[in-house]
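Quick one - first record:
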Amino acid sequence: MSDALTAPKLDAASQKELEQFLETEQAQARVQTQIHTLTSLCWDKCVGSISSGFSGKEQSCLENCVGRFFDASDYLIRRVEQQRAMAGAQ
């Protein structure tokens, strides 16, 4: 009887492709974790209390924080893509 949890034997090319896929998925998970962390930080940093709207100061703080968040996210994504390209070239 075959065990459903036993991994099939893969050739070297398939193994490398699987490893790259897993690395990509892990990198995306790290980016998502970073997104949630930065979102929480911006909210905690900028919003004093929940009301019907944001004050001018809160809005400006959120815009600046989100801008930094997008810059950081863009950097992270480009970095992951560079690492993937370098791994693919090897």
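second record:
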Amino acid sequence: MKPSARMFPQTATIQAATETVVDGAVTETWADLTDHVDLPAQLAQPMRQGEREIESPDGTRVEIDRYLYLQDYKPLVTEKMRAICKGVTFDIEWSDTDSHETYTRCALRLVR
């Protein structure tokens, strides 16, 4: 069963970094991931102060600011990417999906 559009009232764009080295200096350039622009999304409310440190699926502890839910299974969305939602840029700390692959959940940290 596919979730309704009301569950994903916002949109998000996923970006991946490309590193280039010029004169020994590494520069990251962010570009939209193909077919991952304006995806139906739901940006959750900010995490409360005492709830920000969580355990990722691989068992490591990470500090996050919010969760982002993307409609459908998005296997290309991984850590080290960025999500832009509501004009705000976040680093993706990790992502996973539900057992029915109806959505992808991303743990986000605000880019400061």
